[in-house]
Design goal:
Strand order of the largest sheet: 1-2
Shape: globular
Radius of gyration: 23 Å
Strand content: under 5%
Helix content: 55-70%
Number of strands: 2
Number of helices: 22
Distance between the termini: 46 Å
Structural class: mainly alpha
Order of helices and strands: HHHHHHHHHHHHHHEEHHHHHHHH
């Protein structure tokens, strides 16, 4: 956004303003990319010169935190105070609250503070900064605060037999020190763009136990290794940087060629026929993806470059570095169900929603998870259009799949037809559902949906109301929650 003089406004550093003017890109976006590229360089240095074998965990925690604080201040200036205030408030809760309430207090304070910041920035102060500038790091810190609080509660406040296998594995048995706490929340690898990760994994990485711990989890001897190897992240980092570069090129070309504002043009709303609108909507939504592919893949590469993100050995005996990956592009673009698409988009956020909401609430887990996701993203009306529509589409897709999928499994030909049809339906349904998320405001959203005759809303409602619904426990997707069904929000 520009001020009256035509200069790009930002609360962060202005030293890159000449580069911003040269490229014609908002200064806050230039600062973001500069910080992530600097973080990538710092990550290589961190892994090579502050390795766990040569450096104490306290020093690694300290450097990770100092770098993170510097990048936050460089990017966001005075606004970084919000991050620091929230971190300090929630550490106070971590230290003083009872174990039985630590997760509740942390959750409501973190989500409440995030929501107040969303409201004040958009509807009260009108800071004039892009949405991602304000909310991005605060949203990531909120995820981490609540994740850690629930895991401390699981480790210190619940019986082992009441936990699912995953909750037991991630449970934290001792409250973190202040240095561990701020390092986990503000480290330079993830403070700018994430992703969220587990406290035990992060501490194991700092202490040098991360890769060996993951190798032991998959029983490395069965994979052909007779001693614990030292996997190198270099190949994974190079691959992800290539994806990042391609995503950036697509963003600079496709996104400008097919802007989301074209969905409310007179041609689209009044002249194009329904099939043309449907196809053009898909193209515009495809063009809006590369910026997410760019930011998330680069963030993943930064963590890998520091030596964090090793997930074990795959079925072919290759080392995997996808523990922190936020998306699987191939599975997204070939998804044949709404569920498959959602599971491979913003993976770490979906995992966070599962662990703090879906697994723990006793009623309407799907609905409450979508509502929490909308609240976490912000207060723009478009978010709520998307997530409320997503509830309808998810329930309808689940009903259709349960009623008809088995008819197409008798032969490869029928299965191929089923996959092609469900792929097309899924991609168009996702485009329809997420359009308000990108458009943000009420008026363009209503204009778009009116031009599309609210077709997906109507079809989804008809399916839910009139197709026979076979009983399906919500725990089928994540069976481990059965063990804790009667211990929700304990």
């Amino acid at each position: 956004m520009q001020d009256g003089s035509g200069a790009y406004r930002t609360t962060g550093s202005t030293c890159l303003h000449p580069l911003s003017e040269l490229l014609g890109i908002p200064l806050d976006q230039v600062n973001f990319v500069a910080c992530q590229l600097s973080a990538l360089c710092a990550a290589f240095w961190f892994r090579l010169y502050l390795s766990p074998g040569e450096t104490s965990p306290a020093v690694r925690h300290a450097f990770a935190t100092i770098f993170g604080i510097y990048f936050v201040i460089f990017c966001f200036g005075w606004y970084s105070v919000h991050l620091f205030v929230l971190v300090l408030m929630c550490y106070g809760i971590m230290v003083t609250a009872s174990i039985s309430n630590i997760h509740r207090y942390s959750f409501f304070v973190a989500m409440g503070y995030l929501t107040i910041c969303h409201i004040s920035r958009i509807y009260i102060f009108h800071y004039g900064i892009l949405t991602t500038d304000f909310s991005g790091p605060l949203m990531i810190v909120t995820q981490k605060i609540t994740t850690l609080a629930f895991q401390v509660h699981d480790g210190l406040g619940r019986r082992a037999e009441d936990l699912s296998s995953e909750q037991h594995r991630l449970a934290v048995k001792a409250k973190p020190s202040f240095l561990e706490y701020v390092s986990y929340l503000l480290n330079f690898m993830s403070v700018i763009a994430g992703p969220c990760n587990n406290f035990k994994d992060y501490v194991a990485f700092i202490e040098g136990r991360h890769t060996h711990m993951k190798l032991l989890e998959v029983n490395w001897k069965e994979k052909g290794f007779h001693s614990l190897p030292e996997p190198s992240p270099t190949g994974a980092v190079m691959h992800k940087l290539c994806v990042t570069l391609v995503s950036l090129l697509l963003f600079l070309t496709l996104t400008k060629t097919f802007p989301v504002t074209s969905l409310v043009d007179d041609w689209f709303v009044h002249e194009a026929n329904f099939l043309t609108r449907l196809c053009y909507l898909y193209i515009v939504m495809q063009a809006s993806k590369p910026k997410y592919y760019f930011a998330w893949t680069l963030a993943d590469a930064v963590n890998n470059a520091a030596g964090f993100g090793f997930s074990g050995v795959d079925k072919n005996g290759n080392f995997s570095w996808d523990l922190l990956s936020n998306l699987n592009i191939w599975k997204i673009e070939t998804a044949t169900s709404f569920k498959m698409y959602v599971e491979n988009w913003n993976i770490q956020t979906a995992t966070w929603l599962k662990r703090v909401c879906y697994e723990r609430v006793p009623w309407y887990p799907t609905v409450l998870t979508f509502i929490l996701s909308a609240l976490w993203h912000g207060v723009y009306p478009g978010y709520y259009f998307t997530f409320l529509t997503g509830i309808l589409v998810t329930l309808a897709a689940r009903t259709v799949r349960k009623n008809y999928r088995h008819y197409f499994l008798s032969s490869k030909a029928l299965k191929a037809v089923y996959d092609i049809v469900t792929w097309a339906v899924t991609q168009l349904a996702v485009s329809y559902t997420v359009a308000p998320f990108v458009m943000l405001a009420v008026e363009p959203t209503i204009s778009l949906y009116k031009s599309m005759y609210f077709y997906l809303h109507i079809i989804s409602l008809l399916i839910i109301l009139f197709l026979p619904i076979k009983p399906q426990a919500h725990n089928q997707r994540w069976p481990q929650t059965l063990n804790s069904l009667n211990k929700k929000m304990d």
